[in-house]
Amino acid sequence: MEQEYPHGHHQSVLRGHSWRTASNSAAYLLSSLKSDSHILDVGCGPGSITVDLASKVPQGKVTGLDTTADPFEEGRKLAAARGLDNVSFKVGDARQLPFPDKSFDIVHAHQVLQYLKKDERIEAIREMRRVAKSGGLVCIREGDQGTVAFYPEVSGLKDFIDLYCKVARGNGGEPDAGRRLHTWVKEAGFAASDITVTASTWCYNTPEERAWWSSVWVNRILFSSWNGTAINGGHATQQELEHLAEAWRQWGSSEDAWYALIHGEVLCRVE
After folding, report:
1. SS3 for 127?
2. Contact criterion met (CB below 8 Å) for 15 and 48
3. Burial 103-117 (b: 16+ CB within 10 A, else e)
4. Rounded mean pLDDT of 162-172?
């Protein structure tokens, strides 16, 4: 059973994902890595975090998993450019991982559970625990759209965030996943004493960050699968989406533009 990613794999989506590294998106787990760790990266997309993790475990191995092979070529090119041969990619489903029990020291997922329906996200967490070794870790990080803060108050940007949440929930997802993440892993069977809960942010302010982040969303709104999801779900018209894209352009052109998003994080110890 394949879970369709609502944003698809348009170049604008991959471009946004490719910015992510272990340092800016998985720093909370880096101190747990060993040079020979075997890691599974669930929902790896174009593999920028996957490859960065591989660079930190030179005697280990990292496997990136996603529901389609479409983005894997970028990950393979990135690994080759960095001279890494301890990375591989595999097609699979987070809710039915194609690996034996206790296969990995660390199982990592970034921005995955928020797109799954309630029962499916609990099933995915249980699968991640199943394939983690005793004494290993399940490490998950999820954004929380309700925590977004931005400046200046561009007309339309708040409307976009509201629409983003409406579309996500229309698909059965939960865009405010970060604040709920610790409850989901407990529901999946982890004891509170085995869970370390933290939070961290993404923040965009430099001219390069502003230009990149705004253009990512302009193109995603207009050209990615999210566009069709929003329209076909009855959440917005094409004209309304064009208005929201223009709001992102205005935000990105402001010299004082600033944007931040909080993420919830959990490190879950496997017995």
Report:
1. helix
2. no
3. bbbbbbbbbbbbbbe
4. 96
The predicted-structure confidence for 201-245, as pLDDT tens digits, reads as follows 999 999 999 999 999 999 999 999 999 999 999 999 999 999 999
Question: What pLDDT shows up at residue 6?
Answer: 53
How many separate helices (H) and strands (E) can be counted in the chain? Answer: 10, 8
Let me know if 83 is exposed, middle or buried by CB neighbors in 10 A (0-12, 13-18, 19+): exposed
Tokens of residue 263, six digits? 């993420």
Q: What angle do CA 120, 176, 54 make, to 5 degrees?
A: 70
User: Cβ distance 161 to 145 under 8 Å?
Assistant: yes
What digits encode the pLDDT tens for the residues 64-99? 999 999 999 999 999 999 999 999 999 999 999 999
| Residues 6 or more apart in contact with residue 38 via CB below 8 angstroms | 60, 61, 62, 63, 103, 104, 105, 106
What stretches of the chain adopt beta strand conformation (E)?
Answer: 38-42, 61-66, 87-91, 104-110, 132-143, 149-151, 195-204, 258-269
Going by pLDDT thresholds of 50, 70 and 90, the confidence category of residue 118 is: very high
Torsion (CA) 230, 148, 177, 270 in degrees, nearest 10: 140
